[in-house]
Each structure stands twice: as structure tokens, then as C-alpha cells.
Amino acid sequence: MATVGPTYLTPEGKRQLEQELEYLRTVKRREIAERLRFAIQQGDLSENADYHAAKEEQAFIEGRIRALEAILNNAILIEPRPSEDGRVRLGSRVTVAEDGGTPEVYVLVGPAEADPTQGKISYESPLGQALLGRAPGDVVTVEAPAGTLTFRILSVE
């Protein structure tokens, strides 16, 4: 079995994963157990689609529970506070703009809680890697599927 490295989480990200884990352990496990119990009462399990679907969902849920437990057991909290030198680090809130574009705000987080639609980007992403250690006024370039993108760092909080 592969060893799991540290997982960087903000307090909010840790709380969300803990809530998901609790929901899966309590609500989802109970729902699947009920579905399985009902399907078993139907008889002949070899041709019971409900039974097979519930078993597949059960396997998925148990896998997700194990993954969440591993993430939380190896969590290192990122305290969102400004860096002393004003440079981008894990937990930083960074405002960037492409040449002539509208400013965009991102928070640098670990991959377990990255969600670009919510402005949370992983420090492992191309943009996250380009931003780490940089300061306001710096220009970074990122290779993206659409081509090379250039961003100017406007502020770091």
C-alpha cells in the first residue's frame, strides 16, 4: 500500500471534508443498507439490478470514506494569514490580471480542496506553481491548453 503524504487544508476545507465524511458514515451508509435489504428481499440476486446498483454504490461510498479518512489523518492546516515578506504562499489570497483583463482573485490551497469555480486553486496547478513565492508586481507565465497565459500579480493577502 502506498504511503499517503501530507494534505494541506484550510480550516474551512478541513471542516467541509469532516462534514462529508460524517454524512457518508451516517446517512449514506444507512440508505445503502436499506436499499440492499430491500433488494435481498426481492429474491434471486443474480438478476436483481437494484441489488447490483446498490452494491456498486456501496463500494464507491466505502472507497470515498477511506480516502477522506486518509486525507484527514494526514492533514496539515494552512492558516490563512499574510506572509511576512508579502510573497505568495499556501493560504494566500492573490489578485492577478491577464494583460488588459479583469482582475481575478484566487486562494492557494492544497489539491484536496481546490475548486477553481470557487476561486480556490491548488498550489500544484500550473498557475499555483507559477504564483508560489512571487510578489505584487511580478509577472508570471503559465502554459495552458489554450496556449501561454501571462498574469501580473496585483496584490497578495
Question: What can you see in these coordinates?
Answer:
- The protein has 157 residues and is α/β, with parallel strands linked by helices.
- 39% of the residues lie in helices and 24% in strands.
- The chain contains 3 helices and 7 strands, in the order E-H-H-E-E-E-E-H-E-E.
- Strand 6 and strand 7 (147-156) form a beta hairpin.
- Helix 1 (11-41) packs antiparallel against helix 2 (49-73).
- The two termini are 39 Å apart.
- 20% of the residues are buried.
- Strand arrangement, major sheet: 5-4-3-7-6
Globally, the shape reads: elongated
CA(first)-CA(last) distance: 39 Å
Number of helical stretches of at least 4 residues: 3
How would you name the oligomeric state of the polypeptide chains in this document?
single chain
Give the integer mean of the pLDDT values.
91
Rg, Cα atoms, Å: 21 Å
Task: List the main descriptive attributes of the protein structure presented here.
elongated; 157 residues; alpha/beta; two-stranded parallel ribbon; 24% strand
